[in-house]
Amino acid sequence: MKHISILLIYICILISSCTKKNEIIIGTVELSNSKLLLTQAADSLDVPWDLQYDKTNNYIIFSEIKGNIKKLDLNDNSVQLITAIPSVFQQRTTGLLGMALYQPLQSEHYLFVSYTTKTDDKIYSNLYRYIYKDGTVKNPKLLLQIPGNTGHNGSRIIIGTDKKIYWATGDAAIDANAQDITKLNGKILRINLDGSIPKDNPTPNSYVYAWGFRNMQGLTQGENSIIYTSEHGDAVEDEVNLIQPLHNYGWPLIEGKNPPKKETDSTKAIVFTQPLQSWTPVIAPAGISYYGSTKIPEWRKSLLLTTLKSQSLRVLKLSEDGKAIIDEYTLFKDQLGRLRSVLTLPNGDIYFCTSNRDWNPQKGFPKPEDDRIYKLSLNEKAIGKIFTSIKTTSAPVVAELSGKNLYEAYCASCHKSDGKGIMGTFPSLEKSTTVNGDIKTLSQIILKGLKNQTIDGVKYDAQMPAFNFLKDEEATAIINYIRSNFKNQASTININQFKQTK
Ligand code: HEC
């Protein structure tokens, strides 16, 4: 016994001597030549949403969805509240979201923040500018306010190399916004630092820089000032896009690299820009950060992408000119939970955060001390648990045509693996009247999606997307799976019976 405790003390001293500044060692990521130490820099956070680096003070400034702006001092890894914004409206995915810290050499420093508010039953997305100095903020100024919704508020912000604000807005759950050039939703907006419209915008007197987006959750700028975004598709085709002025990225007329859903004369006339990469089944891509440092040679010229549904960090290796994705690697799959945001420091260290206390927790999460901010940095030797990065050769395919696999790929992110959903957000499919009921109604819900229902006395304001892309045999397998699981005991059907319900 005594020996064990001495050994434990010895190990503790050993570990604490390896970690600086209260970092907890989690393990090592082994790449082909480099080793990266994974440490935990902060815990017990509540849905950190955006991470920014204060290069003057060596702080990470981060937002928490309910309205806090906090700082993580990298000199000792202490966390302090900078300010709590009382007017933030937080429900489901709304709240205090994207931020951008701007620290020019000569003039005042600014922190730009995007958050939702609610006035007289109307939700808005707001772009505010604070004066920022050494971990404090003051004098908020509203630069722009646009319609918001309970979902699809986009909100990432960057300050481009041209000293303009780029604000990625969501379609506010109204598809048509994205193709309407007069609306500011579903767009990349280009804005002067004081909120006015830049004189050199591609359309005179308009903030609109690029259009045709659903709900972007990541925005970054790489070499040669190339701007990249990540975006949530509905039931299919999550995307990473390369943004060019006045290009149309297609939502809701096309998704991913597919042809237009409905070929009409007007859609034939539009030129759509395809994503660099798209994913079906969806991965829910979130924060994205360009990695240009030589510190981790294997990752130089990559996009680092955090994902929520697929609970992983992706490394998207870019071509030399940055205009194509040539390789994809997946790290930490299902091990740390939902990952929301990622930040690359000028010295090549990487910080990223979890989102395990948000509206859509995954199986086994949140852990008691979630949410956390993690750090990845180059290290000489391997310590602790070993993580490997797995090369994704092509979009993941649903290996086997079993109802269970298909349900996991397409339905479980919302209705959960056990079918119990989340009360008030995603209805339970357990002992469900609809699932056990008439086949035609059930099949129409799956094919066309559903919105604005009151189920068992509870109103659902989240929407179910349409799954009309499923093959007949896939839809049949899913229907049979949900009708004979989750305490449902309805008859199964064959593919011909399914076809008659279309
Ligand atoms: C993005 C989240 C999401 C995904 C993915 C999803 N659903 Fe849903 N589903 C919902 C929501 C939200 C509702 C309730 C909609 C409403 O009431 O307006 C719903 C409703 C339903 C209902 C009706 C429940 C009732 O009691 O009336 C069924 C059945 C259903 N979904 C089955 C499925 C199946 C099968 C899949 C996979 C093919 C699936 N859903 C995928 C979000 C989702």
Automatic annotation (TrEMBL):
<keyword id="KW-0349">Heme</keyword>
<protein>
    <submittedName>
        <fullName>PQQ-dependent sugar dehydrogenase</fullName>
    </submittedName>
</protein>
<dbReference type="InterPro" id="IPR011042">
    <property type="entry name" value="6-blade_b-propeller_TolB-like"/>
</dbReference>
<dbReference type="InterPro" id="IPR011041">
    <property type="entry name" value="Quinoprot_gluc/sorb_DH_b-prop"/>
</dbReference>
<dbReference type="InterPro" id="IPR009056">
    <property type="entry name" value="Cyt_c-like_dom"/>
</dbReference>
<feature type="domain" description="Cytochrome c">
    <location>
        <begin position="398"/>
        <end position="486"/>
    </location>
</feature>
<dbReference type="Pfam" id="PF00034">
    <property type="entry name" value="Cytochrom_C"/>
</dbReference>
<keyword id="KW-0479">Metal-binding</keyword>
<keyword id="KW-0408">Iron</keyword>
<dbReference type="InterPro" id="IPR036909">
    <property type="entry name" value="Cyt_c-like_dom_sf"/>
</dbReference>
<dbReference type="InterPro" id="IPR012938">
    <property type="entry name" value="Glc/Sorbosone_DH"/>
</dbReference>
<dbReference type="Pfam" id="PF07995">
    <property type="entry name" value="GSDH"/>
</dbReference>
